Amino acid sequence: MVLGNPQMVRWGVLGTGRIIGKAGTALKQSRNGVWLGVAGRQEESGRLAAERYDVPRAYATYGELLADPEIDAVYIALLNHLHYEWAIKACEAGKHVLVEKPFALNASEARQMAEAAQKHGVLLKEARVWLHYDGIAEIRKLLSDGTIGEWIHGRGHYSFIPDVASSRWNASWGGGALYDIGCYLVSWAGYFTGEEPEAAEAGAWLHPVHGVDSRFVGTLYFPQGKTVQIETFFDVAQGAYFELLGTQGKLRVDFRATTEVLEVVCTLNGGTPRVWPMNRIEPFKRQAESFAEAVLNARAGETRPAIAEALGYTLQQARVMDALLEAAERKCRVVV
């Protein structure tokens, strides 16, 4: 590893949770980046992660990693409630930042993160790894080409049962079904329809022990009477799909995963499904390479409109999430 290679982005990872088994491994495999350092909540967790993944540097604190002048970009894989604080601190330290979902816990936090990136001249992006799945671009093209005519109604579903000790059950850490998996559905609604909702209605059931939404169902209202319903559950077996009904047909996308393999399955008008299988690391590798390419282009003085566009979409998604939460709390329709 040549640390001074101007064609390689040197990554630091904040967080030592399960996600870095895929995302961190992807950094090591990427063609234009190296995983230089890692920091956890305790010094010991950072050291153990560095040993497990053969990372050269372990830091005693998150701040120590950010102070390392040889770190170019930071991947934030922290608990949800820590994204805002450490993304801003990373921007202030002059690091480019890739933030795990959910980007922030509300639109105000998201806006302040974006402002910090602009102020300090760094790139900031939400890690939406599903954009790098095989088949996603082809499916969107089918829709934009009018394969099902004009879309009029959509439905998104995501469910699984978290471990009893999962951070997803901790309200103070930004837990709950909407933040953890509902953010995918909001994102899919915007991506596959190519439109933005105007208003939202929602209902949530709070777990009697943990106090987080373990069931969250919402309706997004789009122009011309179009709607998308989303449903997220922490007490239903694992499943994830998005479907759109159009004036000339119906398209459904299923996301199926094991520990080793992910499949994107597209079914058009109930016909024979088309399946795109891939290993679990590859999409994370593509995501890392895409962000690193933007960093290298910025280093060369080139513009990065794709990053700005992606951040704009993330800010819009945060506003939609706010509207859904407010609608569930007030039990009324809320304008986005």
TrEMBL record:
Molecular function via GO: nucleotide binding; oxidoreductase activity
Database matches in Gene3D superfamilies: Dihydrodipicolinate Reductase, domain 2 (3.30.360.10), NAD(P)-binding Rossmann-like Domain (3.40.50.720)
Keywords in alphabetical order: Oxidoreductase
Domain Gfo/Idh/MocA-like oxidoreductase N-terminal: 9-124
Domain GFO/IDH/MocA-like oxidoreductase as annotated: residue spans: 137-252
Keyword Oxidoreductase: yes
Protein family according to the UniProt entry: Belongs to the Gfo/Idh/MocA family.
Protein name: Gfo/Idh/MocA family oxidoreductase
